[in-house]
Amino acid sequence: MSIFKPTHTDYTLSPFTGLTRDSFLEAAKYLLKGFFSEIKDIDAAPVVKRTEFDITYPHKNAGPEQLDRERRAEIFEGLARSFFIAAPVIHEEPDLTVNGFSLRDYYKERVLRVASSGNPESAGSYEEMKKSAGNNPYACFQQTVETCALVICLNICEKEIWDEYTKEQQDVIAGFLSGYGHNMTVPQNWRLFNMLDLAFLAKHGYEIDEDIMREHALAIKNYYVGDGWYRDGQSFDYYSCWAFNVYTPIWCREYGYEHMPHIAEFFEKASNDLVKTFPFYFGRNGFVNMWGRSGIYRNAAVSPLAANFFFKNPAADPGLCRRVTAGALLQFLEREDFLAGGIPSLGFYGQFPPLVQGYSCAESPLWLGKAFLCLELPEDHPFWTATEKDNFEGLSGKDVRTTVLDGPALVFSNHASNGETILRTGKVLKSKKDIHGIFNYAKLCYNTDFPWDSAFIKEKGIIPMQYTVKDATMSEVSVGNAVFYAGVENDVLYRRQFFNYELETEMHWIDAMDLADFTVPYGVFRVDRMRIVRKPVTVTLASYGFPDVSADIKKLEKDGAKAFVLKGKDGHGRSISMAMTCFYGFDEMGSVTSGGTNPDRGDSVIVYGAGHRNKLYSAKEGHMMVSQVITRADGGEFTEEDIFPLKEMTYESAEDEALEIPTLIFRDGRKVRISFEGIESKLRL
After folding, report:
1. pLDDT band of 659, cuts 50, 70, 90
2. Domain extent for 238
3. What is the dihedral of CA 516, 520, 523, 527, to 10 degrees?
4. Has this prediction a pTM greater than 0.90?
5. Which long-range contacts (C-beta less than 8 Å, at least 24 apart) are formed by 91-99?
6. 8 A C-beta contact, residue 463 and residue 455
7. Rounded CA gap, 488 and 517, in Å?
8. How many independent structural domains does the chain possess?
């Protein structure tokens, strides 16, 4: 399989990646070539061959009316999301041909067909879709999402496409947009879709309901939690970035600065706050962390960095932003398994069903085209002319820089020793039945070089990078589905994770773990406390999934601590290592293999430690579980001190020991005091 190999590179301007603006144009054409390899002629709809049928839509068990709605939505997704990639290319090279036909003519015709009722490729007007849904006044449709992408791209290609329509054709498209822009939408990031639809209409002289626009804009403003982040529904994830912090600058440019300057000023400040820390969210190589829903959108996560420059007074560092944007592009386009049938696969790297959600179709991954909005910035813009800047600048040796964002309860650490960035999340609430959502949000750590593994080995109670509680009496395995945030104190992050949490269940019958963790040079060290109400139980903690089942595995012991050390190769061809060490509170360690659960190479090895607690009430059995997981993807090896860094765990007094307030003394002289006292007053969701 082919991979992207740019012919335009400049390692003086871009010392880390070599990529320039011309390289990004090449990458866009590379993706378009793959997409149009399945679009045989200029009259063919923008729909590609499916590679997945059980999860994605059009759903195989859909009735005739639902199937019709989903077929329309898929055509629109194929158009709008590929347009994200094509629009800046058309603007740059309006006469470009692909598969022997004009790219500009293809999208000009497709947009008109999608917006025209009665056309076989029509997405359906809002009124038609509402009728097909039984006139449900609260029905929302995927078409609303794609209208937003459509107007963004029409703005980019205003001269090349929009201005080429007749007035009658423009009116058809405007009427289609008005229906979705003025009507029901999902009360979270979707409001921005309506705002951009209305902004496009107002810009081009069409009447809009300004009261609706203001209602949406105020609601978006009120989702803000600080540090540049917005709460999307209940969750915090990339939608806060690739939606809120990409659409708001476009809205400000097209509408807000002129008509709602105070709200525009707020959005600009929020974006400027985001870019102060967001470049540090990525790995040293620019790698995106696999976290949150819609992981198939991949490097769309970088889009708010370039979008910050759409504001009048951007605060982003252009060399830093381009380094991350370029690194994230190469993370995926240099993988042989990235494309499936010419378009990005339904996965993170290759095809990976555990990541895919039912609101996606075969064309959905093209949402990553949002990363190409940086091509809106002209070639003389600082984003392209500044020298690439290391997002780990100032870090060396075994330095770790930790960023704490209290608003969204996100803590991410940059580890100079291995170039990895580790994210720890603090405000999570998922249904206990939503194992997919739990994997996306509730794992203890998310690592840019070791993406989350979907293994769930019930007989042993093993889930990678999570605790589980197995009730020995009832043979049930409880999974942590809720995380409450208690803040960071003296570099220790305090959280509480509940197992099988339900709002209607009385809190005192819910098992939980008090979590206390802090960084070490190659990873995260844990000192966690059980809050288990039923016994006997086995509490199990597992490592990341290690994506090489042929890994060399060594078992080590020192001063009562046990460790498993793994060495192998990942899907990028890099030499990787992982070590899990159990110091206190564990009765056994082991490893298992899992098939088809790892997004990097499919199969994986998972190391785990288990602690057994037998007496219903017993202080002597102990509640503390002390461990660490460290990783490397740079070919280096761990020293004995890396694997066994803890010298001893002491208590200042018998009272502290009874209250389980230990001080950890490390071999390098570092001392860390852990205290869960007062955690009840700090828990936040």
Report:
1. confident
2. 21-385
3. -20
4. yes
5. 91/156, 91/157, 91/159, 91/160, 92/25, 92/375, 94/160, 96/29, 98/32, 98/33, 98/36, 99/36, 99/37, 99/39, 99/40, 99/41
6. yes
7. 10
8. 2
